[in-house]
Sel1 repeat family protein
Amino acid sequence: MTTMVIFPSRGDDALDEFVRLLDRFKLACCVPSNRELVKLAPHVGAKHKHLRLCHLSAPALSDVLSRKRHRPPRWEWVATYVLTCLHVHEGSGAELNFDGPRSLQGWYELYQEKFGDPHASGGRARAPMDGPVPASPVGPSGPPGHPEGPVPPLPASRVLHWQDLHDAALEDWMHRFRRQHSMTHRRYYELLGRHGVDLLMAAEGAARDREAACRLGILLLCHDRPNEGMAWLRSAAGDGDEPARILVNAAPSRRREMAAELAYEFTLPGYAQEHPTGDGRPTAAEVYYRAAAAAGHMGATVRLGLILEARGEIAEALCAYARAAARCHPDGLRHCERLNDQIIRDPSVLRPEDLPPES
């Protein structure tokens, strides 16, 4: 679950600000959880063999982002974190809405500004974190540092709780919290409707609903967002979800097709063509059929056409049937011919905005 961290004051404004930026960057890049960063970091390291990168571990991520470490992380650790976040964002299809550094070079310049040359010996920038990648990396590096000892917990008197904030500070924190979370919610709402937001909240909630995470991954794969979809599927597979495990282990070239089939099958037991929501929102059935249709599933394309036709969106329904008919799907051919004949006999079935302009 993605959380917003409130930092206790340690008298190091530069480090506090830098860590806050790291945490916000993770949110802006649509990273579902720290665990996904840990899982994806080795793939990113293999992709950037010319850089000296580090292992990411869950305890180190937690310690850095909660400010339990008194010294800045090593540049190699920051580079691994930033590149892994960018790797997730590449597959999200979203605009990177972030007011800080957006590239590795930008983060490097900010790191230099706040903590000095990361390759200089003896400076704060050499604070040890996780060890370097065992493979012989190329690039400038100093001698590995010695592991830090365990960091003693803060006294209770120094831990800041929300109850300690005065009204204005609490309101400001809540405003920033809502704004950072709204980007992902808004993206999922635009792509998947209310059902997508419901899945997101269930997958991110305290219960970590693995089925919701799996369904999110399947829908995102169908909409050709493989990196973001696979992040959710790996999370669900790690929690024991069988369909997610099957997709994770499948050949990459077949994943989207398999996701489309699963999206189609998820919908069949609850298919409710004649029961729209009544407020303009798509039913959950439509969300899955639309996703499967986007991935080329012709059965789902016909079912989507039936939903659209039942809702009175005749032109859109005809387009759906025509797509299936063009692939020689028998139901697509039948419904396309039927609806086309109906329009010819009675053009009033079309909405005024669907009619061609008068010459």
User: Anything to note?
Assistant: Residues 167-204 form the longest helix (38 residues). The chain is about 60% helix and 0% strand. Confidence is low (pLDDT under 50) at residues 1-11, 121-151, 269-279.
